[in-house]
């Protein structure tokens, strides 16, 4: 079963290799831009952000944080909305540029977050990002990139079939498209559980 799933994913990546390369390059450009943004911030802006971050750490150390159940809900909804918007945009022809923007912005967010922590806290900041930012993004980022490729591919096929007036294959693709979103939601559920209940334990080890 695992080999079959792996083969399906590998075939999908090979079939859309050019699109994956473009999406990955766009995401990396976002990371670079986000990292450079940290360097461009003024001293006052960096100080305000770091002060806010320190206040969060102080509250976190005293366990003055939101209820884990509520945090889990917020984490899951946040990820689901982001991936869900990409999925919905794939159903509309005009949504293609927005998908690309969202991939770029995700890279900016990751690059800025990690870059800011490293810039302000050095090696400790890197370790903190390694346990608080990187673990869930090791799953979320590939999932977002894959859903972006699937959405763009579906949208391009939809354009082709609208011009060809061939609706049969379109319905079959829609079923697979809905299935891809269902699988993505299940994966995001696991990610939200990890971020809510395991990630805080790793973070406390560095405080």
Automatic annotation (TrEMBL):
Species classification: Bacteria, Bacillati, Bacillota, Bacilli, Bacillales
Keywords: Cell membrane, Membrane, Sporulation, Transmembrane, Transmembrane helix
Subcellular location: Cell membrane
Source organism of this protein record: Caldalkalibacillus uzonensis
UniProt cross-references to NCBIfam families, sorted A to Z: spo_II_M (TIGR02831)
Primary localization: membrane
Membrane-topology annotation of the record: Multi-pass membrane protein
Protein role: Required for complete septum migration and engulfment of the forespore compartment during sporulation. Required for stabilizing and recruiting of SpoIIP to the septal membrane.
Residue ranges of the TM segments: 18-38, 85-118, 138-156, 177-198
Subunit structure: Component of the MPD complex composed of SpoIIM, SpoIIP and SpoIID.
InterPro entries: SpoIIM, SpoIIM-like
Full protein name: Stage II sporulation protein M
């Amino acid at each position: 079963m695992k080999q079959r799933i792996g083969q399906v994913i590998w075939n999908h990546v090979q079939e859309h290799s050019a699109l994956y390369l473009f999406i990955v390059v766009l995401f990396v450009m976002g990371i670079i831009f986000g990292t450079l943004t940290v360097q461009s911030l003024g001293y006052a802006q960096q100080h305000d952000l770091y002060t806010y971050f320190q206040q969060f750490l102080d509250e976190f150390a005293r366990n003055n944080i939101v209820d884990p159940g509520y945090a889990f809900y917020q984490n899951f909804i946040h990820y689901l909305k982001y991936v869900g918007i990409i999925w919905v945009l794939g159903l509309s022809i005009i949504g293609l540029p927005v998908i690309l923007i969202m991939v770029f912005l995700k890279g900016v967010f990751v690059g800025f977050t990690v870059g800011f922590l490293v810039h302000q806290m050095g090696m400790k900041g890197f370790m903190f990002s390694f346990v608080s930012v990187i673990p869930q993004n090791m799953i979320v980022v590939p999932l977002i990139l894959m859903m972006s490729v699937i959405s763009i591919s579906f949208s391009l096929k939809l354009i082709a079939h609208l011009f060809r007036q061939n609706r049969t294959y379109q319905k079959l693709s829609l079923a697979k498209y809905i299935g891809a979103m269902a699988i993505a939601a299940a994966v995001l559920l696991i990610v939200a559980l990890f971020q809510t209940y395991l990630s805080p334990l790793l973070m406390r080890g560095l405080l």
